[in-house]
Amino acid sequence: MKPSNIRIWTLVHKWTGLASTAFLLMLCVTGLPLIFHDEIDRLLGEDAEAQLAGAPSAQGGLPLDTMLEAALKQRPGEVPLFMAFSNDSPLLTVTTGPRADAPEDEMTLLFLDRATGEPLGPAPAGGVMDVILTLHTDMFLGLPGMLFLGAMGVLFVAALVSGVVLYVPFMRRLVFGTLRTGRSHRVRRLDQHNLLGIVTLGWALVVGLTGVINTLADPLTAQWQNGELAAMTARYGNAAPLAPAQYGSLDAAMRAAQAALPGRAPQFIAFPGGAFSTAHHYAVFFQGDRPLTQFLLTPALIDAREAVLTDAREMPALNQALMLSKPLHFGDYGGLALKLLWALLDLATIWVLWTGILLWLRREPGRIGGGRGIEAVA
Q1: pLDDT in tens, 150-191
Q2: pLDDT reported for residue 373
Q3: Is residue 309 one of the residues assigned to a domain?
Q4: Same domain, 118 and 148
Q5: Which residues, 6 or more positions from 119, have their beta carbon under 8 angstroms from its beta carbon?
Q6: pTM
């Protein structure tokens, strides 16, 4: 590689790394407990499913209309926003709010046992895992925070790519994995930084790219609502919004949805008036019927007054990418074994980021950009 090209890639790697490293360290540190969020919830006694026995709520139980009535009795004066199902236990959740378009901070999540109809009370709020998740996703800044972290993710990917470009000519002079233990402390740290960086490269790219996609959740949802969802319900454009008293039977709506998408398990129902439905429809979202597609959702729109199907179609490719990216980002595809692997790679990435900071802080004057390959990065 020409010295001029080395200098350019060195500058790219240096500045993209420096600009994003502090935020990436925060994301890696907060991401570590989030990998084990299910296990931590059980340890803290906050896993509502642990004590329930019976058929999964996605497969059967008491009528949905009965469950909705039981939920609304706990929150008089509020309206239903979502009803979600479990494929592992009878746990059924109902989200309510003061109005159909209520923001998240005004919503209440209620737990119910679909096998018995017993209300289990509101979900715990404000726990340590909620704080960590909010810090990880938007730094308590909402959409601006999400988009900012998305930009940091883009810089992270650029730092990874530029690091590979610099590493290739560097490794032509050494056997892969060489740690020059006889050299200075700085060179030994540089070798550790480079080796762990290249070993974790694939994982870091996956997590970085899926993280960027996750930060676009709100814009992608709005795009789907204004595009695909509007096209599916165009004939309702001039109709007056339904009031909650006009909603028809949830059980009839579920039967219509399951007839349109047989063999799939429902994941959640979005009630009229929210971002995932229209002012006139129940939107019943079904999971894929295979392990690789279980995180892909397909909505069936059911006229909420008449309980008849309006339309059912796959979501756009970008929205499907968003659905796949969330579980992949946190290692939720392969059980505890994959989570442990994710945690080890996360710790290795923290070390790469930390050594990158140390290499920058303890750099030698005049060394940066001096045309000496990957050592110029330090």
Answers
A1: 999 999 999 999 988 887 776 777 776 677 777 877 888 888
A2: 43
A3: no
A4: no
A5: 70, 71, 73, 74, 110, 111, 112
A6: 0.81
Least confident interval from 25-34, 77-86, 234-243: 234-243
What is the number of other CB atoms lying within 10 angstroms of the CB of residue 244? Answer: 15
Q: Please report, as a single letter, which amino acid is at residue 17.
A: G
Q: Phi, psi (5° rounding) for residue 215?
A: -70, -15
The whole-angstrom separation of Cα 114 and Cα 266 is 14
CA end-to-end span of the chain, whole Å?
18
Number of domains in the chain: 2
Residue 211 lies in a domain: yes
Q: What residue type is assigned to position 351 of the chain?
A: W
Is residue 236 assigned to a domain?
no
362 falls within a domain: yes
Phi, psi dihedrals of residue 298, rounded to the nearest 5°:
-125, 120
pLDDT tens digits, residue range 294-310? 778 899 999 999 999 99
Portion of the chain with pLDDT greater than 70, in percent: 91
Range of the domain at 338: 3-39+141-215+332-377
Residue 15 and residue 155 in one domain = yes
